[in-house]
Predict the structure.
Amino acid sequence: MRREAPQRLADYGPLLFPAGMLIVFFVIPFATMIAVSFFQRDPAGFYSTAFVFDNYARFLSLFFGKVLGFSLFLAVTVAICCVVIAVPFTYLLSRARRRTQVLWLVALLSVLSLSEVIIGFAWSTLFSRTAGITNLLVAIGLMSEPVALNPSFGAVLTAMVYQALPYTVLVLYPALVRLDPTLTEAARTLGASPVKSFFTVVVPALRNTIVATLIMVFIFALGSYLLPQILGRPQHWTLSVLITDQAIYQSNMPFASAMAVFLVLVTLGLVALTLIAGRKGEAA
Amino acid sequence: MTTFLQRLYLGLVGLFLSLPLIVVAGVSVNEKQTLAFPPQGFSLSWYGEIFTNPEWRNALLASITLAAVSAALALAIALPLSWFLWRRHAPWANIFQLLGIAPFTLPPVITALGMLTFWATTGFYGQPWTAAISHAIFFVTLPLVTLSLGFSSIDRSLVEAAATMGADDRRIFRTVVLPLILPYLVSGYAFAFVLSLNEYIVAYMTVGFTMETLPIKIFNALRYGYTPTMASVTILFVAIATLIFGLVARFGDLPKLLGAMANTDKH
């Protein structure tokens, strides 16, 4: 069947409800948020209409700089850890039998869909003194008594890697499944070990995919909100936590909105970078 | 030797992914209200607690209702949109596809805050149905992606045959297209349902002070310390997710849904 351009007004019918919903409940809220970011805080209510740059000017404080810096640092670290673990894993997964692949995919999707609250709770249990992993180390004689491992930076990082790892694998999966197996076979025939052919053939062939994945996982990690709160100390709080804190507890919607707009700009910039990396990948 | 190393690596990642859940499962069967692992005694009473304690039961019901309604609404947005984009040649309409994918791509706190400002400005803040709309918009990406995959796998000559024999658009949709995309429809619903069930921040920012979904309930309980019900609810949620994705895998093509198009010839 040819795809025709819509001719009559009735042809646009199916578009009516989706377009209406998306405009009313996404475009308008988004625009409202941008507008509010220029408003003034009203201690009595949510905000009062104005046009000021005060909320953006607050970014210039040392505190905000620290939170932003930490958020970016944390997200970069999570992205690197995830990609380093996930690339070999996904490669092995994509070479496994179909049945094995399906089982892994079900498990990965199940972990991926887990609420941040649940992941935070599970890891806080694992890092606790009474039920945690240190009990195991005591049992095999490596430690003398169990200790609590959270709150700490390591706890936040581990849980965030846990949260983002299934996502990383699922982002890499299509590219690795489509990777031509004759590439590695050729390297093996020429005498390269599996590990060597992985690093000299698979990784370079996937360079752009890996860069795009790094950025996508970075954005994903930037959105983590509860794990820094459950497993970290206040100095481990991220921009997402700060935005919620300002919006809900400090009732400062304009400042929260300004930070959110800033976060959108950072994210969009990164998405643009991903697209550029992807396009280069196609050209290569 | 290399196969052994490969298995070891897969096994270690598997251990990392399952370890917290194993410990939580162990904790959930403790006899007394203690956070201990290995569990002391064995009791399934904390699983019963989810259904007998009205607070947890209400939270579970609220979450399931929210997930069911918002996933249905997401589908109602995604289906006509994907149908239109597939049926008609209208490049500008792709902007709506983009709008549907945007909320899921941005950090969730942004959608959450956008919704909060919107509902507060319009005066509906705190109404339970606002959470359903917010989740539907937030998760519309999932049915959109599965459905556009579904539509792209339909052989257009089938539809052409139906049209030649005099079927109009509505009839083509009902008798040819709908049966073909049904698996994608179901998996889109399943993805949106499971993710809505687990979603915290959008629900918290829209109805957090008037309604407790299960993730909100767990977080509130976590702030006041530990109750074993958290552990049993966690395991329940893992079980639900595994069951639903297992069913999707059983009745659909999971590798294909996740983008592995070239994989169909491998068994």
Residues 70-259 of chain B form a domain with the MetI-like fold fold (CATH 1.10.3720.10). Chain B touches chain A through 98 residues (CB under 8 Å). DSSP finds 13 helices and no strands in chain B. Chain B has one domain: 70-259.
